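Task: complex structure prediction.
Instruction: return structure tokens for all chains below.
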Amino acid sequence: MNREYDYTYAVARVRANELSLLSAADIEQLIVAGDYKTTMHKLSDSGWGEIKDIYDYAGYLENYFAKTWNFLVEIMGDIHELDLLLIKNDMQNLKAALKSIVSQHDAKDLYVQSTVYDTQEILKAVEERSFKDLPDFMQKPAEEAYEVLTATANGQLADAIIDKATLERIKYLGVKSGSPVLAELAERMCATANIKTALRCANTGKSKDFVERSLCECDTIAKHKLVETSLEGVDAVLNYLNDTSYAVAGEKFKESTSVFEKWCDDILMECVNEARYTAFGIDPIVAYYVARDAEIKTVRIILSAKINNLPADVIRERVRALYV
Amino acid sequence: MFQIVQAFGGDALAILGAALAAIIAGMGSAKGVGTVGEAAAGVVSEDPGKFGKVLILQILPGTQGLYGLLAAIMVMGKVGGLDLSQGAMLLFASLPIAIVGYFSGKNQGRVAAAGCSLVAKKPEQSGKGIIFAAMVETYAILALLISILLIGKVG
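Output:
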């Protein structure tokens, strides 16, 4: 069934809101705005919201993200179509909850606000070790990560298990959505995450078991090849990437880590760029989310660089591709 | 159906034609106006100042329903003692505006809704959005013209 007319109202509201996305000129103005405080005030003046604690830029940006997500909830009606964009927050909270019960430290500050599932229910299930009360796809990784944490205290492996489950869920939701843009976005999210993990594992000499438990299956990169090459070293991974559609990843990685990280984000923007010319369907809404996400990442980089007194050129090198 | 045609002669066929012109073209307009209305509401909820511009876009797909009504009134003017062949001719004469009116209204609604997005982002370009939507109108006008000429040929 053709559902493109379902989003006519939502797309019109998104188009109207796209006017408030930061342009390249706005970003440049923020970069040259002066010190950290001035930049924060500039953001506040341009509609990013009231500043409660000027030094808590992470909280400020999280509130702005929540505002964006609430807008999508308001216009979409059934927001579950976009679950794959937010599910990483639920999994982040699951990770924090698991570590919190094992280490017996309160992880209240680590929980992310905007989630698909009720965070309190996830926390309750984890606190009571009642993993069967979690959503189906969380049960097995939560149990596995909990066992790893209690038996070996290997936080890295526990994180890797949850991250892999996150990517598998993203991939599943992308395919299930029936939207080519969401499916492509999910595929690219999984592929770039796999590349990052494989390179990190190659750099730190992780075992085969660790790499296998960290990488997810995806269509554009063969998992077994990434596992094999990551055991041989970074060059082997980069050589393998030359044979895939992600050959440019190698060049970016050799340039610098920040250039590579920027590329990983920019290829997500690339796959929604066409939505600028699409009048119907879910694509413009997905594109708006990706655009806001990239904008928030860029602003985070600017603020973090300013608080650490880094020069403007260092910031410019890291600015993400914009939608407008 | 056959018994109705036999009992009322050509008048029943002519009335069927008039009803089809009004119903099918009206359905196209209803769909089109509804689609633009959703988009227009989205734009106005963000910026009420754009009401005037999106209202013009919403009105455009409504014309097909009016064309269907016009053709139906013309056919109704001929009703009264029509023989079977005249009734059949009026039925067929109503079909161009009925069918083209439906698709034209529906698709014009689509183009006008896309025009609302244009107004949302670039209000100064709203004239172009109206022109794009008006282009679809051409085919409804051609269909109305041929329906009028065919109706005029009867009787």
